[in-house]
């Protein structure tokens, strides 16, 4: 089975993540919030570090239920003592702040999933990458969306983080064209 070249051979976490999750279009608001939050946690770290800590993040952040996370401000000091998490106060604060903004938007009728997908016209972009070197670090739509998020108060949402979010949540198909997932996602369109 041919995978994207960035997937380590025999990696017990990365292979299933690549094969079953990465690049699969996601329209679930809590799952999108989770993906965004984990991409924020990944900034400056390896994805395998974040993936290994994902169960702890899910437990600490109530499976990324937006309304519950939005009410966690007073729990920030406790989160900072949890060795199972990435204990970066700015990143943890960003998750809580971003949840508050999403929850406030939803109270005014804004659907977070529709808001996210509106940036790509509700359909995944396909970059037809031949190799990992063809995959961009960011794209204009990620820069635009990053600016939109920052304007409403989101934290830790630079263009590179947002582009990684687009890739993970399936807003773009950046699987290499030789990868079996590339063909699966093309067929599913």
From TrEMBL:
SUPFAM superfamilies: DNA-glycosylase. It holds the Pfam family Adenine_glyco. Gene3D superfamilies: Hypothetical protein, domain 2. GO terms for molecular function: DNA-3-methyladenine glycosylase activity; metal ion binding. Zn(2+) binds at residues 4, 18, 175, 179. Keywords: Metal-binding, Zinc. InterPro entries: Adenine_glyco, DNA-3mA_glycosylase, DNA_glycosylase. The keyword Electron transport does not apply. GO terms for biological process: base-excision repair. This is DNA-3-methyladenine glycosylase. It comes from Fructilactobacillus florum 8D.
């Amino acid at each position: 089975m041919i995978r994207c070249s960035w997937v380590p051979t025999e990696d017990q976490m990365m292979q299933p993540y690549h094969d079953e999750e990465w690049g699969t279009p996601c329209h679930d608001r809590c799952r999108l919030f989770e993906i965004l939050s984990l991409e924020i946690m990944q900034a400056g770290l390896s994805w395998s570090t974040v993936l290994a800590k994902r169960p702890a993040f899910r437990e600490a952040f109530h499976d990324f239920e937006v309304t519950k996370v939005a009410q966690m401000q007073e729990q920030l000091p406790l989160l900072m003592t949890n060795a199972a998490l990435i204990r970066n106060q700015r990143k943890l604060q960003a998750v809580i702040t971003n949840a508050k903004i999403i929850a406030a938007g939803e109270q005014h009728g804004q659907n977070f999933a529709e808001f996210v997908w509106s940036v790509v016209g509700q359909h995944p972009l396909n970059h037809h990458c031949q190799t990992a070197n063809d995959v961009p670090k960011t794209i204009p739509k990620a820069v635009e969306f990053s600016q939109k998020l920052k304007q409403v108060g989101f934290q830790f949402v630079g263009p590179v983080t947002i582009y990684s979010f687009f890739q993970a949540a399936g807003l773009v198909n950046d699987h290499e064209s030789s990868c079996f997932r590339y063909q699966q996602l093309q067929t599913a369109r």
